[in-house]
Automatic annotation (TrEMBL):
Annotated PANTHER family: OS02G0815400 PROTEIN (PTHR36802)
Protein's recorded name: LOW protein: ammonium transporter 1-like protein
InterPro entries noted in UniProt: DUF3082
Any single Gene Ontology cellular-component annotation: chloroplast
Transmembrane segments: 283-306
Entry keyword set: Membrane, Transmembrane, Transmembrane helix
Length: 313
């Protein structure tokens, strides 16, 4: 049987509970407070107060220069060795080239040895490149392989200027091999890839060196198939004189043909006479056209010689 507390007892307990909660509240407020910051902690007791203030965290990061040129730059000697390996071909490989590829091979030889090669590359490297150029011109694969194998050995003794000159020549010659397309098992493309890669590395390798360059004289070259002729002011003037003489000769021949009257032509029948008159007109047109073209060529060569002379000066 439950017993219920009397109302008077309940009213008597309420003041006591109020005093109890009021005594607890300051203590809870004193011991429970939010942290003032994330880097300082405060612990408080009834007897003493101890404050711990740790040092601010300052993480240090070691930055490594990973993009420095020395760490990413390939070794030119290794790239030159790749060229030597790409020339490991059968002894008659170049000799079997068709006519168009032989022309490309001659162009590669010209790009490799064009200009003042001994002055730019030095005696040893210059003579090696000249011999290699001659080997390409005669399609000598064995000599080409032995000469290319010397390049990694010579590279260590090259100056910055010589490396730069060698790099430019390798890139130019490599593009000639690249234009040959997929011949055979793709050997020409392997040669082109190795030469261009080594050439670009050598050119970039020597950019940090101080190079004192003399003004390079620009040369113009006239090509007729495999024939290559360097154009100079003297050669231009000589060509103009030859064109002028040829023009005078064709003019005299045209005048001689024209001075022959048509009524002096005597043939057995009318068909032969008509054929002779047609041939006479054709010859006149041909010789007059040759005279005009010779005069135009002579004038153009004279102007070209004057331009080359002014550029040289």
């Amino acid at each position: 049987m439950k017993t219920m507390a009397s109302p008077s007892l309940q009213f008597h307990l309420l003041p006591s509970l109020s005093k109890f909660w009021s005594s607890i509240s300051p203590l809870s407020q004193h011991h429970t407070h939010p942290f003032s910051s994330t880097t300082s902690l405060r612990f408080t007791s009834t007897n003493s107060t101890t404050t711990f203030t740790p040092k601010p965290l300052s993480p240090c990061f070691a930055l490594t220069e990973s993009n420095s040129p020395n760490s990413t730059q390939p070794d030119p000697k290794t790239l030159l060795q790749d060229i030597a390996e790409s020339f490991d071909l059968p002894s008659d490989y170049f000799a079997k080239f068709p006519k168009d590829l032989r022309l490309d091979l001659n162009d590669a030889a010209f790009d490799l040895s064009n200009g003042p090669i001994l002055d730019e590359c030095g005696k040893e490297l210059g003579e090696t490149l000249l011999n290699l150029s001659r080997a390409w011109e005669v399609a000598d694969t064995s000599s080409s392989r032995s000469l290319v194998a010397k390049l990694p050995l010579i590279e260590a003794s090259l100056t910055g200027t010589a490396k730069s000159a060698l790099g430019k020549r390798l890139v130019a010659a490599g593009r000639r091999f690249q234009s040959m397309g997929q011949y055979g098992q793709g050997e020409t493309q392997k040669i082109a890839k190795a030469m261009i890669a080594a050439g670009r590395a050598l050119s970039a390798y020597s950019t940090s060196a101080v190079i004192d360059k003399q003004p390079k004289e620009e040369t113009k070259t006239l090509k007729f198939g495999a024939l290559q002729v360097e154009i100079t002011p003297t050669k231009a003037n000589i060509g103009a004189a030859i064109a002028l003489v040829f023009g005078i000769l064709t003019w005299e021949i045209a005048q001689g043909v024209q001075s022959t009257p048509e009524n002096s032509l005597q043939y057995a029948n009318d068909n032969a006479l008509m054929l002779a008159k047609s041939l006479r007109g054709t010859l006149l047109a041909l010789f007059y056209a040759s005279t005009f073209l010779s005069a135009l060529t002579s004038a153009g060569l004279v102007l070209l010689g004057i331009q080359l002379k002014s550029e040289k000066n």
